[in-house]
Amino acid sequence: MTDFTQIPGVRLSMRNQVSVIEIDNAFATAKLSPHGANVFSYCPKNADGSAGADLLWLSEQAVFDGKTAIRGGVPICWPWFSGYSAQYNAPVVEGSNPPAHGLVRRAAWHLEDIQALENGATKVLFSYRSNAETLAIWPYEFVLHFQVVVGETLSLSLITHNLTDLDLPMTEALHTYFNLPGDGSLQIDGLQGAMEINTLNQQNSLVAESVTLAGPIDNVYLQASNRLLAKVHGEVKLQIDTAHAASAVLWNPGPETVKNFADVDHAKWAEFVCIENGNVRSDQVTVPARGIHRLQVVISRP
């Protein structure tokens, strides 16, 4: 068994019942867990080498019991996003109860590898395979890889390996929580031209200008561009670049819905927003028989 602690800048620890991988390299610090393959901290370093502000948000009341999805960071929604829909996803086992946001955000992933790269970045690779529990709901063999590169940017790649002889339609998203305000001072550039679906009032419209994010909001954007800029009072705070991700989702629960969450301080609802990237609704992807699909998201601080 590889002793990953021998790799410079890598430390393994526990947070309650959940194992944590701590990264500290020339570019950033980060914290990840095999539980859900969640990256829940990424702090780019300043010019003096000190860790800057965390770009990711983690609830102070997040549960680390190895069973509950971690509230914050980058939960992985796969092989469906939100509630299961037969309209966009491969059929599930009749009579099964498909969980919200898919099969893997609460799962125990396998830590495959950690590498210190020549450029000073650190690469972490997780894997998750179909098993009796997944097959009882979604009857298809698969292997998932989630590759995280902690460097000058945070590079995230979700790679689906379809091990069946069937073409598999599916939806997916990286449900990223950011340390950005949900009070109306945040604007997202790059959604112009996308189709906006406001799931709160069921209205659709073509986006013509920057989108102001004020909770409560739960908007889906179809055929979104591959670069989004998050601006607070006009200043760019972060950039999100994607590949093979046609959709974006903006979400914040607002002051009322947040009261339904036991793992969020209800007074802190305006301290975070979710900017989610993937392929949802009619932007679904079909992974060909014995084929591979790769979703990539790169997060950076200007």
What does this protein look like?
The protein has 302 residues and is mostly beta strands. It has a single domain (4-300), classed as Beta-galactosidase, Chain A, domain 5 (Distorted Sandwich). It is built from 2 helices and 23 strands. The strands form 4 sheets. The protein has a 9-stranded antiparallel beta sheet with strand order 6-7-8-9-23-19-18-13-16, with no helix packed on it. Strands 5, 11, 12, 14, 15, 17, 20 and 21 form an 8-stranded antiparallel beta sheet that branches. Strands 1-2-3-4 form a 4-stranded antiparallel beta sheet, with no helix packed on it. The longest helix is centred in the middle third of the chain and has 4 residues, at 132-135. The chain is globular and about 55 Å long. The model has no long low-confidence stretch (mean pLDDT 97).
